[in-house]
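Give me structure tokens for this 324-residue protein.
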Amino acid sequence: MRRSGLVCGVLICAIVGGAGIASAEPAADKKTLQTPITDKEFKAITDALQIEGQAYDKAAGDKAPPLSDAVKRVQYTAKSSPALQKVLRTRYGGGLADLYVKHQLLQPLKMADDKTLRPLQAYLVGLLGRCQYKPMPKWPRHMIAALFLPNGLSAEKQLQAMKKMNEVRQKKHRAEQKIAKENAIVNAVEKTVKHLLVLMDHPGADAALVNRLKTEETRRFGTFHDTLAVIKAEAVRMKQPRAKKLYQALKAIGYSVGVKRNYIDWSAPRYSSSANSGYGSKPAYFGVATLQVVNVLATAAKEPAVKIPDVKKFEEDQRKRARR
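Here you go.
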């Protein structure tokens, strides 16, 4: 079984509740893994995850969920693929419950081999395309106005107005937090899918990553860092033809963007109690970051390292032009 350098440690810990999971060793052996193969075995897992997903959907907060106990001791093999494909294509309720279940079911795949991963290529490429982020809402003027206390109120009316103002602020924050929470789990799913696609060693999976990288730059998404990171981590294990193809694709993309731009950081919601909320952004040289990965690929691709633009010189030239 091939394991990526992106994966740290062994999936261990809690026992999955419910019958039907492949036979386990005594509980004292914490490293024992369970391999679901049949529909019944997967149902024991998805039933538990669906309950957790419904609770996650209703809970307050804006963070992605931690790894569920229901999958901590699960491993997949090629024999798991047929039933796994079925459960991944099943819908598990509304809200974030369905995405929660899918996110958890994908985690054991990080330790799977190519024979287990490749049948899921079409599904994972499609799932990557469905990983879409939602901006914070732009509230109407009357609601923004309601976030402030009117002037010239008596003490009694001021207390009433303050109560109403706090209710509006709480309503606004709950709505924004719900969006941030959805974006957080979408980001977690996206990172996992990118990880799995690069492990597949398949032209279609690599093409999906390259296309995602182009989209991220066009839309100014800071998630491009995650795409480059998975390619960089896998580069040392790539065979020459694959590495060369990615080398050429990323080289062309990298040289096409030479300026510093601001990219949205979907992991950093910025809440405001007196105005529209939003997401932070970070400046980055997309071209430089991409070409640095090109040079990591160069060894396996048996291609020359590329020249990376001198950022300091570029910025100094920009300042000189601005002073003219």
